[in-house]
């Protein structure tokens, strides 16, 4: 999970951990990119407006490196113009801030199920 607001980052990470998810955090896109080089992840949840590297720029780097990791963009101002210019970004979901913990958990479950659930 990536967000430059440490309070939001801590609260959301705590909620995800209490729901059984393993969570690593980063305070900006550059730190997240470094972490993504070190170990594999199942999901990236990122804000967009951050110092050093925005969420859109982070996802562009992911896709340029042929990483297919699903991404949830959780942001106060949806970067529709940037997303329109880069259709290859391929976000799994957009989660507009402010969102409830229930909305966060539901979005995470849906995205992970799309990539990992077996049909009944």
Keywords:
3 strands, mainly alpha, 5 helices, 120 residues, three-stranded parallel β-sheet, globular
- Give the topology string: H per helix, E per strand: HHEHEHEH
CATH superfamily: Response regulator
- Percent of sequence in beta strands: 5-15%
Helices and strands: which structural class?
mainly alpha
Measured as a percent range, the helix fraction is 40-55%
The biggest beta sheet, please? Answer: 3 strands, parallel
Separation of termini? 30 Å
Could you tell me the number of beta strands? 3
Spans of 5+ residues with little confidence (pLDDT < 50)? Answer: none
Q: Can you tell me the CATH architecture?
A: 3-Layer(aba) Sandwich
Q: Name the strands of the widest sheet in spatial order.
A: 1-2-3
Domain count: the total is 1
Mean pLDDT: 88
Shape: globular
Rg, please?
Answer: 13 Å
By DSSP (H or I, 4+ residues per run), the number of helices equals: 5
The top-level CATH class is Alpha Beta
CATH topology grouping = Rossmann fold
